[in-house]
TrEMBL record:
Pfam families: tRNA_edit. CDD domains: PrdX_deacylase. The keyword DNA-binding applies. The keyword DNA-binding applies. Gene3D superfamilies: YbaK/aminoacyl-tRNA synthetase-associated domain (3.90.960.10). It comes from Methylobacterium radiodurans. This is DNA-binding protein.
């Protein structure tokens, strides 16, 4: 059974990780998030759950305003074969969340090593980032280093990546 937002919050508290939790209407897209929660103070993120031609899964977290070209991103991630968005079924199976609720924390619901986590380097420069805690009607404002620490405490490794100079991949 996948972890729910309350269980995630309990884990963050056990690790002594500071955060602010915001409740809001459910949002499915970055545009909806910006319209609903644009003023909570952190840098908003967008999260992509992808699959390559060899059926490896990738959870990619970027600044909300990063533009993506999946063909170019494939080489950045080291993906094999074509790169595409994973199915809704794979989202539920591997991350235990619905569309719109993806964040690095969702990888805590996956089997170890089943999902490769990638975080854009620019997010680590931000004071706070905004991510969903396994539900798209909640947002956590958290320091990026604290999010990474929570993932490590759960035994999850992540890779930091940079987009090309144009910040478009």
């Amino acid at each position: 059974m996948p972890m729910d937002p309350n269980e995630l919050i309990a884990r963050l508290n056990e690790c002594g990780i500071a955060y602010e939790l915001f409740e809001h209407p459910a949002v499915l897209t970055v545009d909806e998030m910006m319209a609903t929660c644009g003023d909570i103070g952190g840098t908003h993120t967008k999260n992509l759950f992808l699959r390559d031609g060899k059926k490896a899964h990738y959870l990619v977290t970027l600044r909300h305003d990063a533009r993506i070209d999946l063909k170019a991103l494939r080489s950045v991630l080291g993906a094999r074969g074509g790169l595409s968005f994973a199915s809704t079924e794979a989202l539920r199976e591997h991350l235990g969340v619905e569309s719109g609720a993806v964040s690095p924390f969702a990888a805590m619901n996956s089997a170890p090593g089943a999902v490769k986590i990638f975080v854009q380097d620019r997010l680590l420069l931000e004071e706070h980032i905004d991510v969903h805690p396994l539900s798209n009607n909640l947002t956590l404002k958290i320091k990026p280093e604290d999010m990474m620490a929570a993932l490590r405490a759960d035994g999850r490794s992540s890779e930091i990546f940079a987009l090309p100079d144009s910040d478009e991949v």
